[in-house]
Amino acid sequence: MSEHFQVHIWQLHKVIKGNVDVLKDVPPNLAHWSQFLAFGAQKSEEEMAALTSNDPRIIDAYREFQQFTADPQTRELARQRHMFLIDYHMAIDESKAESRIETFIETARNFKHLGVDSETIAKGIGLSLDEMEHLN
After folding, report:
1. How far is 88 from 115, CA to CA, in rounded Å?
2. Residue 119: which residues within 8 A CB-CB, separation 6 or more?
3. Which residues of the chain have pLDDT under 50?
4. Which of 70, 94, 113 is the last residue in one of the domains?
5. CA atoms within 13 A on the CB side of 4
């Protein structure tokens, strides 16, 4: 590290979520880059021209973005990746839900083996009496 090295952490997710107010106190270049990264695919040609007019680096990035989105094969790969990520996160959420259910069932079994009556367990854990009857 030296005095010439800087690291900046930018929370782009706030901009993506529509909180563009966070951009009012930042330098214009950072605001333009943030808007480009967050909304580049959603802005019109005119809006992008306004964003890129003062910064040749953003212009170059926008040209690359246009080339990327113009290629059907690349767009299809991006769509497949997006679908994979959706499936992946859904599987994780489903696994967590199943794990919670299994935890409730295991807890109910433990209480049942300790002699706690099924009605009390069902009320405490949120299982129906029918579900309680099927526990070993």
Report:
1. 41
2. 129
3. none
4. 70
5. 0
